[in-house]
Design brief:
Blueprint (H helix, E strand, L loop, with lengths): L1 H19 L5 E5 L4 E5 L3 H10 L7 E2 L1 E2 L4 E2 L3 E6 L5 E8 L2 E2 L1
Antiparallel strand pairs: 1-2, 2-8, 3-8, 4-5, 6-7
């Protein structure tokens, strides 16, 4: 239960930081089965990405460290429960939906 609380606290603080911080780009893409939007936070781009967030059933906010510094150009792989890769990116931004 503590792990869930810590995870939720981290997610909430990351979301708060996304509102405050400014950064770089947004990119929409797709694979055979996956449609995604990948972006960093910037005043214009962030509002476009956030406006589309409700269209996606998985929303990842990438940050690291105690201060929650946003990550860009992260290597991200998402697999199904069988271990099959569903999405693989070398340039994951701080927001990946």
């Amino acid at each position: 239960m503590n792990i869930i609380k810590l995870s939720l606290a981290g997610l909430i603080s990351t979301m708060v930081m996304l509102v405050i911080v400014n950064a770089a780009y947004a990119e929409e893409g797709s694979t055979d089965e996956i449609i995604y939007i990948n972006g960093d936070v910037e005043s214009e781009e962030a509002s476009n990405v956030h406006a589309k967030a409700h269209d996606y059933n998985l929303r990842l906010y990438l940050s690291e460290g105690k201060l929650g510094h946003l990550i860009s150009d992260a290597q991200v792989s998402i697999t199904d429960k069988k271990g099959d890769i569903k999405l693989s990116l070398d340039n994951g931004g701080s927001m990946l939906f």
